[in-house]
User: Fold this.
Amino acid sequence: MMVMGFFMSKYLPAFLSLMILAFPLFASEVTEAKAIRIQVDKVDREALVFLPNESKSKAPVVFVFHGHGGTAKNASKTFAIQKHWPAAIVVYMQGLNTPGKLTDPEGKKTGWQHKTGEQGDRDLKFFDGLLNHLKKEYKVDENRIYCTGHSNGGGFTYTLWQNRGDIFAALAPCASFALNFDAMPKPCIHFAGEKDPLVKLEWQQKTMDRVKKINGCDSNGKEWAKYCTLFSSSKNTPLVECIHPGTHQFPDIAPGLMVKFFQSHTRP
Assistant:
């Protein structure tokens, strides 16, 4: 691997199997933002990373995955985890053109693999490569690594949980569901819209019920925040259901609540 800084560079050495390039973005506004590019199976992959100003101690890491047709740049504005948790390394990853399960069957828009083994596990490999880079280049607290995503990105959050569950301290999928889901118990906060016309609440509820079973949650919940119910677990892997009155849009309440949830959970 070779690391090199650049600004608005257009030429990349083709012989590298894995290459990282980083440069400041929005220098006048957010100087800690960096664009990172790596090659995975000879395909360029990109992510936008926000670094904490304080680097003396190990930092938590939050991975964020946009929905189908989204971008890392837009996700950095809607999720804005870096504003709610400035001490964290926040990673907004960019998807590739992907056929959608519910829309865009021709795959003209960006997205993420829907299940294990699909498309050569290109997005799982992207995650692995980027996490390895972060560990080498920055002070990462490996017991505080988190993941969230909206819609297709939320579905990929479940795919990561199923395939890389031992890495995460907690997860926060939004407006998504997972078929035949099976994974190790992990703290989870799931956001769902009552009026979601695309990913039906009924589908999401089935996924949350499956998570309750995996996590060993109590059958009765208690209020955790507005719209949110906490289901405790004897395994210390609770589920918080945040069922808001909205639709499929990413809810404004989500970033602050997921950061609150993340901060309360560390990997044993």
In short: Residues 122-137 form the longest helix (16 residues). Helices lie at 72-78, 81-84, 122-137, 152-164, 201-215, 254-263. The chain has six helices and 14 strands.
